[in-house]
Amino acid sequence: MFQPGRVIERLASRLHAPPEIVERREERAFIPCHPAPPVKSPNLVELVIGARRNLIEGWTERYYRAGIGSFRILRRQIVFVNSPEHIRYVVVTRHGNFERKSPQMRRALEALLGDGLFISDGDTWSRRRPLVADIVHKRRLPEFGRTMEDAALAVAAEWAALPQEAEIELTEEMGRLTAAIISRAVFGKNIARAAAQQVIEGFSAYQRQADSFNLGYFLGADEGWPTLGGPQRRRAIAKVHGVVEAVINAHLAGEGDAGSMVDLLIRRNRRSEGQPLDTTALRNEAATIFMAGHETTATTLTWAWYLLANAPWVAKAVHDEIDAACGPRSPTLADLPQLRWCRAVIQETLRLYPPVPLLPRQALEADRIGDLAVEKSALVMIAPWLLHRSADLWEKPNHFLPERFLSGARIDPYAYIPFAVGPRICPGMNFGLDEATLCLAILAQRFEVQPRAGYRVEPVCRLTLRPKGGLPATIVRRPAPNAG
User: Fold this and answer.
1) Cα separations (Å) of 103 from 195, 228, 354, 460?
2) CATH number at residue 64
3) Is there a domain that residue 483 lies in?
4) Between β-strands 76-81 and 379-382, what pairing exists: parallel, antiparallel or unpaired?
5) What is the mean pLDDT of residues 345-372?
């Protein structure tokens, strides 16, 4: 069957070969996969091909150090901000001038999320942020803890029923797990599995069609060009919107699950001052919460399994900790304070593989960052992928070292930003951290995950940071711990 996308990909690779993927194992040390920085800066053609293929390739060595800089792509200034003090200036001191997400991100997501919190700004963002922040606040975590536990235990039961040496695809498995959690948390426990799967498939198909470059912006259109949508993209949007709108309408008719995030959102919306959100706005916020809660945690858990499989000394510390804290019973939300290694593995995973590795902003007006003049409508690039691997901010930045989060040393909040930082920090940060830590603990208590021997793992970003082609792996049962 003719696949034009594959043909274009092969032609692009001939014009600009993808970078080497670096991965190295040493005695009690592991440097996980990452693209090697190119020796020289890419030209315009290489830059465009590279950006469409993988947004984390093409950064030369000089960008992996703290600092600021500027370059141009066609008619647009690109400002690179990679030092904690200047990041603070952009996202806090001058938040009002730099709050807008880039046109590329807005255009790539607007058809799916509308004016949802992730890509909105100005009055829309200011009005909705308190609504969403309240329903995902950390004080509500106990309400959703049992949902996390039940979903992880369901996956554990499925894994236990697999025949020996059966292979799974980890990104899909973790996607099903986090979708089960977030769909029940957002939409209510009564959502059908088929409906949740429809939302997952819709999001995945939409991401495959996303244009993360937007040539129009670099040619001078400050808002970028609208993204053209083919039939596959329209079908993906319809899948997601159909499910979410049905749930919203059920809640508005009094038929939804009390206590779900949609229920809380609707009730909070009715009590809020000013103009309440209509059905479309409620749908956009519910879709945004689902996307953020499903995709980001699924990719984090996938990368965590990859890292543990290649650092058996860390896996042993995790297993010993779980066995000591929980014995034969399953970990619960209440155990998380004792599961420090599990939490550190998730934190280090987020450092090495931040789910959203680029956080581009757009300058509303001309400004100055340090000694650098910033033009109106310039693209201001804050990149957790680069910041988290800067040699002058982190010791052994490319190594997997979860113990760096156990030492008690203070970590600069503007040097570690997997959930962004400042007023636009992810409101679901605590939910996501606890969800990932608890799911890892429940599954790691029972299983080890072994990626397929010889499989080449490669991080690729279009909207989020995933292993290219997924991550095939075998599940190995651990012996049950003795009762204490």
Assistant:
1) 31, 14, 21, 21
2) 1.10.630.10
3) no
4) parallel
5) 97
Task: Round to whole Å and give the CA distance between 273 and 265.
Answer: 14
6 within a domain of the structure (yes/no): no
* Domain-located, residue 242: yes
User: Which of 163-167, 213-217, 328-332 has the highest average model confidence (pLDDT)?
Assistant: 328-332
Higher pLDDT, residue 202 or 311: 311
What whole-number percentage of the chain has pLDDT above 70? 94
Backbone angles phi and psi of 319, in degrees to 5 = -65, -45
Residue 380's beta-bridge partner residues? 79, 361
Judged by average pLDDT, the poorest of 61-70, 114-123, 339-348, 467-476 is: 114-123
DSSP state of 418: B
Segments of 48-104 assigned E as strands: 68-73, 76-81
470: left (phi over 0), alpha (psi -120 to 50) or beta: left
- Supply 100's token pair: 């807008």
Q: Per the structure block, which two tokens stand in for 384?
A: 């957790």
Residue 443: phi and psi, rounded to 5, are -80, -40
User: Locate tokens 């059966």: which residue?
Assistant: 166
Residue 5 lies in a domain: no
What is the total count of domains within the chain?
Answer: 1
Q: How far is CA 296 from CA 63, 262, 293, in A?
A: 25, 20, 6
Minimum mean pLDDT among 53-57, 182-186, 188-192, 331-335: which range? 188-192
CB 11 within 8 A of CB 51: no
Cross-strand bridge partners of residue 69 = 80
* pLDDT tens digits along 227-270: 877 888 889 989 888 888 887 787 777 776 777 777 777 777 77
From CA 276, how far away is CA 278, in angstroms rounded?
Answer: 6
Quote the tokens at residue 254. 């009094």
Q: Count how many residues are written for the chain.
A: 484
Q: Which of 199-203, 303-307, 312-316 has the lowest mean pLDDT?
A: 199-203
User: How far are the Cα atoms of 284, 285, 322, 348, 422 from residue 132, in angstroms, in the given order?
Assistant: 12, 8, 33, 27, 16
**Max CA distance (Å), the chain:** 67
Tell if the pTM clears 0.70, that is, is over it.
yes
* Whether residue 80 has pLDDT greater than 50: yes
Pick the closest to residue 399 from 387, 414, 411, 389 (CA basis): 389
Mean pLDDT of 1-25: 68
Beta strands in 253-387 (DSSP E): 359-362, 367-369, 372-374, 379-382
Residue partners of 123: CB distance under 8 A and separation at least 6? none
Closest residue by Cα to residue 223 from 373, 352, 119? 119
What percentage of the chain reaches a pLDDT higher than 90? 55
Nearest Cα residue to 147 out of 251, 243, 259, 249 = 259
* Residues ≥6 apart with Cβ < 8 Å to 370: 68, 86, 89
Write out the residue range of the structural domain in which residue 323 sits: 16-477
